User: Which sequence fits this backbone?
């Protein structure tokens, strides 16, 4: 999780400082204002957070860990977190939009799209550095899903580097 770089820099990371700063600001907005976190009711999104970070042990203060702990502590509080029901359908979800250009969308990330699509307000998805999302941005917009790229220049350059264009 990029936010961990805010408190423990990784010399091997090429993530620019502005990406770390933007990630931290958005996480603070969620945790301090109790605003705008939407997850699935089955806990798959939370489990992905756990898989990527795990809950902090006593004495750990990395920012991303603190976010996971906040989600853990508040996931059942409807004034802080919206839980949305989505229906598993093979390696996808019933709520995942039907669009030809999304047929190759990463199965492990489909839960985020399904949750946003199933929510009555279709909340935006925040994406920091996963460049493959850049390639699906137009198709997602066509089906009413908004992705806010927190590190737009970085992610666009990474996508071009990986895809070659």
Assistant:
């Amino acid at each position: 999780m990029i936010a961990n770089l805010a408190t423990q820099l990784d010399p091997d990371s090429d993530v620019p400082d502005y990406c770390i700063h933007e990630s931290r600001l958005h996480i603070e907005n969620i945790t301090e204002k109790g605003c705008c976190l939407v997850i699935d009711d089955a806990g798959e999104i939370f489990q992905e957070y756990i898989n990527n970070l795990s809950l902090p042990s006593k004495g750990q203060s990395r920012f991303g860990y603190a976010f996971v702990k906040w989600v853990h502590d508040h996931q059942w509080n409807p004034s802080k977190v919206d839980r949305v029901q989505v229906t598993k359908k093979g390696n996808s979800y019933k709520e995942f939009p039907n669009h030809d250009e999304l047929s190759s969308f990463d199965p492990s990330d489909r839960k985020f799209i399904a949750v946003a699509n199933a929510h009555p307000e279709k909340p935006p998805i925040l994406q920091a550095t996963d460049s493959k999302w850049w390639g699906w941005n137009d198709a997602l917009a066509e089906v009413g899903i908004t992705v806010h790229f927190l590190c737009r220049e970085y992610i666009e350059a990474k996508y071009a580097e990986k895809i070659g264009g």
User: Anything to note?
Assistant: Residues 29 and 91 are 32 Å apart (CA to CA). The first helix runs from residue 17 to 33.
